[in-house]
Each structure stands twice: as C-alpha cells, then as structure tokens.
Design a protein that fits this description.
Elements (H helix, E strand, L loop, with lengths): L4 E4 L2 E4 L6 H12 L7 H16 L18 H4 L1 E2 L4 E2 L1 E3 L3 E3 L3 E3 L6 E3 L4 H4 L8 E7 L8 E5 L6 E3 L2 E2 L15 E2 L4 E7 L4 E6 L2 E6 L10 E3 L1 E2 L2 E2 L31 H12 L19
Antiparallel strand pairs: 1-2, 3-4, 5-8, 6-7, 8-17, 9-14, 10-11, 10-17, 12-13, 14-15, 15-16, 18-19
Helix pairs in contact: 2-5
Length: 288
C-alpha cells in the first residue's frame, strides 16, 4: 500500500492505518506539543520496534518507555510512549541528534516524572525491574539512574553492593559489576532476591525489599549524586519492568535490530519490563 505523508517540514506522518495505533498516538501527541518528528524512515523503524515489543509480550508490561536516540527534536526524545506525557530535561543536559542526552555530573539530568509509589501499575514492591542501555559509560563510579529524593533505587557504573531496587537502605550482600557499555537490567524477583544483567552476564544477589520509594525516577542522577558528562552519554529507550525469568539472554549485537532487541529484553526481563526501566540506548539506524 502506498504511503502518503501529511504535514509540513519534518512533521510528516503516515496516514492513519500505516502505523500501529499506539505509535500513531505518540506522533499525534508530539505534534500537539510542537515537537519535531523523526524522519519518515525513522518513524517506520520506531513503529516496527513497538510492534516487536508487543509481539514479544513486553509492551503491555511497561509503565513507562521513551526513545532518546532520535533525529527528531529533544522534545520528541522526551516523550513517554506509554503515558503520553513528557520527561523533563533538568538543567539542560546536552541533547545530540540520533544520540540522546548527556549529563554534566553536577546538576543536569532527566526526570521521568514517573513515581513508582503512586504511578506504578506493573512495578510493585517485590516484582519490579528497571532496564536501560549504556553506549558510553564514562567514568567508573558514576551513577546511572535512581530516585530523585532517596537512595532506595539506583544503579552505578561500578562493581559495587550499592545497586538497589526497592531496597531502602539495604545493600547487596556481594558486589555486582555493572561497569561496562551495553544492556543493563536490575530486577527484584522476590522480597529478598535480586537479579542483575550486565549486558549478557547475569548475577544474582540478596537484599531485602523495604517498600516502594515515593519519588520520581531520574536518569543521570540519584538523590544528591549526578552522572558525569559521559556516564550515560546518548541514552535511548526508557521503559518499565517486572519480574525476570532468571534466564541469560543470547548475545546482542552492539547495534541490535528491533526484533533482536525485543527478544533480548524478553529473555533478560521475561515479563519483567513492566514498570520502570531506566535509559536504554539503541541507535535509530539499527532499529530495522
């Protein structure tokens, strides 16, 4: 069926029926807030990514999801595809076209405006996940993501016991290394058990849950800590997760196709991507 674009300049979308209804809703929302849409080719790839997430059983389990790497505007990059609201870029993190956002290590970050305490449908105390993709991890020891006002959630670019998910002040009994580029996922599978993926390497840990933190999830920040300017440079899809199947995913190429990304997320989070998920990086050119 021929595709007929409508709109002006970069705000060109396919006619209704060419795209999945949920992706079309993202484009419609973007136009309503004055965001510049991605190119038509990238729209096709993003639509396919959403279809693959649905096919893999992931989409319905998300509470929040965003795609930072885009050739649209920064306003488009900040759209939450699930809730049709926008994340907030605080203190001007640097946006790079087809890259994403970069923090300054002192104040700039992304506020998802998602509070797992009050806004998490899938993300619950003892069955929750946050997942993201790191393309340029930068300085060891920096924070990847966490809560804006507490230390009960957070992941670090480090080999540490400080990775937390609904953990209150409780730390892991043994250190887990997340200091690399690639896929990251922290999953709470019970009141005591935590599973962490550092790309394709899975580690299990023990840390007693202590309830849901009552504060917004933020990227490149946790409480008073901020990610350095290259700690999560050019981050991309942001999602939300649930329980993991404790099954190591197959190796994922550095530039995954949308179907491979969906399969990877399914294996790594298996029903998990249901609630929050921090920041993921997938180059639009690789989503095909």
């Amino acid at each position: 069926m021929p595709r007929i674009g409508i709109g002006l300049g970069n705000n060109i979308v396919e006619r209704s029926g060419s795209f999945d209804a949920d992706y079309q809703a993202v484009l419609n929302y973007a136009i309503s807030i004055g965001a510049t849409l991605p190119s038509s080719g990238q729209q096709t790839k993003q639509n396919q990514l959403l279809l693959d997430l649905k096919s893999a059983g992931i989409w319905s389990r998300l509470d929040t999801f965003a795609m930072f790497a885009t050739d649209g505007s920064s306003s488009f990059a900040l759209i939450d595809w699930k809730r049709l609201v926008t994340y907030t870029a605080v203190n001007s993190p640097t946006f790079s076209t087809n890259g994403g956002f970069t923090g300054n290590g002192t104040s700039s970050h992304i506020n998802t405006n998602f509070n797992p305490f009050s806004g998490g449908f899938n993300y619950v105390r003892d069955n929750a996940s946050r997942s993201f993709w790191v393309d340029n991890r930068g300085t060891t020891g920096q924070i990847f993501e966490g809560l804006v006002n507490a230390n009960s959630n957070g992941t670090f670019n480090d080999n540490t016991t400080a990775h937390q998910i609904n953990s209150g002040t409780n730390m892991l009994l043994t250190a887990v290394n997340m200091a690399s580029d690639g896929f990251k996922s922290i999953n709470r599978t019970s009141g005591t058990a935590i599973s962490i993926f550092n790309d394709t390497t899975q580690s299990t840990g023990i840390a007693t849950s202590a309830g849901l933190g009552n504060g917004n999830q933020v990227i490149l920040r946790r409480n008073a800590l901020y990610g350095a300017n290259d700690s999560i440079a050019r981050t991309a899809p942001v999602a939300a997760g649930r329980k993991n199947m404790n099954q190591a995913p197959a190796a994922l190429p550095k530039r995954p196709t949308s179907s491979k990304l969906a399969r990877f997320l399914t294996a790594a989070t298996a029903g998990l991507i249901a609630s929050f998920s921090a920041c993921a990086r997938v180059k639009p050119s690789s989503i095909s």
